Amino acid sequence: MRSSKFCLNPAGDTPSSCRLFDVIVSHCVPVIVSDKIELPYEDEINYKEFSVFFPIKQALVPGYMVTKLWEFPKERWLDIWRWLKNVSHHFEF
């Protein structure tokens, strides 16, 4: 994960999954696939500052997410990554 720029985080069937924490602590920009998701500490942390979101309908279109992530502006990714580094300590246990 540490060498990846983006890490896929599909919605799961349990809110206790640690995969999002693992992604954030690894400083990999989370790619969250969900139409409606409750995120840990979302009242205190704005995930839109350091994550990329895709609705399920878009994510199911073959090649859509890959194309969007390839086209993602480098400067925007750097901004997101900086935010990610600033909040990652909240997810270390």
Pick out its properties:
93 residues; alpha/beta; three-stranded parallel β-sheet; 34% helix; globular
Report what the structure shows.
Its main location: Golgi. Belongs to the glycosyltransferase 47 family. This protein has 93 residues and is an alpha/beta fold. The protein has one domain. Helix content is 34%, strand content 14%. The protein is built from 4 helices and 3 strands. It has helices spanning 19-25, 56-59, 64-70, 74-87, and strands at residues 6-10, 29-33, 52-54. A 3-stranded parallel β-sheet has the order 1-2-3. Helix 1 links the parallel strand 1 (6-10) and strand 2 (29-33). The chain is globular and about 35 Å long. It starts with 5 loop residues before the first strand and ends in a 6-residue tail after the last helix. The model has no long low-confidence stretch (mean pLDDT 89).
Helical stretch tally: 4
Biggest sheet character: 3 strands, parallel
Instruction: Report the β-strand fraction as a percent range.
Output: 5-15%
- Total beta strands: 3
* Helix proportion range: 25-40%
N- and C-termini, Cα separation: 18 Å
Low-pLDDT regions: none
- Rounded to an integer in angstroms, the radius of gyration calculated over CA atoms is 13 Å
Name the structural class: alpha/beta
Strand and helix layout:
Layout: E1 6-10, H1 19-25, E2 29-33, E3 52-54, H2 56-59, H3 64-70, H4 74-87
Parallel strand pairs: 1-2, 2-3
